[in-house]
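For the sake of transparency, this paper describes our internal protein records without simplification. Because each token names a local backbone shape, the row as a whole describes the fold. One such record is reproduced below, unchanged from the form in which we store it.
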Amino acid sequence: MNFYASIEKTLKHDTDRELLTDTDGQKYTRRDIDAQVARLASYMVSIGIKPGDRVSAQVHKSVMNLCLYLACLRAGFVFHPLNAAYQSGEIEYFLGNAEPSLVVCDPEKLTMMRPLTDAAEIKHLETMDAAGNGSLTDKIAGCSEEFATVPRGGDDMAALLYSSGTTGLPKGIMLSHDNLRVNAECLVDAWGFTDADRLFHCLPIFHVHGLFVALGCVLLAGGTMRWAAGFDPKEAIEFLPECTSMMGVPTYYTRLLSDPDFSPSHCSNIRLFISGSAPLLAQTHVEFEERTNHIILERYGMTETGMNCSNPLDGKRKPGSVGPALPGVTARVVDDHGEACAAGDIGNLQVKGGNVFMGYWRMPEKTAEDFTPDGFFNTGDQATEDSDGYFSIVGRCKDMVITGGLNVYPKEVEDTIGQMSGVSESAVIGVPHPDFGEAIVAVVVTSDAANAPNPDDIIAFTKDKLANFKVPKHVSIADVLPRNTMGKVQKKALREKFSTLFE
């Protein structure tokens, strides 16, 4: 039941066929990737990493990083990817909680990482740069290219990803081999992926979208990829004509539309554009169709569940909707008492299926809290279901902002701003942004007018403490924060006040 066993079927077939080519033209065959995966797995076993052990990776996207993920699957380890933008304080918690046996980081982060791994008593620390080079690559050079995939149970953990809540500490999301396999098989079928497909892979691979959704479809279907380190509109325009599909966050599509050179000719070979990780504005959906004659397929998923809903490959794709539940997934909208909502009424979205995660790492109470007695997972999203069974996500029950497809939890940013001298309190919100979907805005109340920090000071302070995507795009100084009679900050009022800030 090891998920890699399903992937291996394609890698071991027609081994001289290309699997991916990067944007510099470097080609990798299926044999190349399978051999590198074997070397990595062999090396990690040789240093004492055992099935079930965590391997934490804070590295940039590279082919070697892809191979590290696959090697962890193959050897039965638990892959723990980390955003390369995370800073010391963020990493310290993840390492202490995940307790990895091996940490792999960018060479530029080694000075930051070594004291953290020493403090956590992590024995093995290796490096890997954006080109895939580093101490780990050096050490596997003489390792065997043959490695027997380690048997695993379907409910054995394959990956550990973290997703913070609005309060408390980040939660480790345990994804099993079955979770990854079931969802990937479903998407290959639902989206019509075959070995004739070529994906423009421009997503990061520390995130479910690029790591499990995009790669799962290609690797199971036996397709190929044009491998980009990140998203650049000019690269997309150059390479889309050779591709049949692209997956992206809404920001990618707005950036393409903003490029005057982007035209229908660049999409002539494309059969499917897919958007997710954040809501796609209906306006973007319409504008993209008008520009390219292609209708973006929007879908909905979470770190905890993989994909839950999708507009159909064949059938009506509704702007503003994430489509019906995928095969094997049951979704429902209920009120606060757990009763089914009528069509069109806003309620709490709950899902159930083989795609839904095992639970939160070492947090059984939180796991129990987020599941209903009949086994549905409370997504924390508010949604509607129309008479056709199409779901639309209308907001978060939890106070989360999605900017450029990445989740930001306001409390973390507020806590960081609160560390500044002269700050009394702050409220962090997300407001509409034409490029990022939502942008982080901080409204700050200062305590000492004479020594109060200005907006630039606050932004600079957060840049030193937080990943760049969490840094406010705008800071406003206020005398007070709006509150209701119970003293709760009225963030809705703030969102309304700053709603046109980036227009």
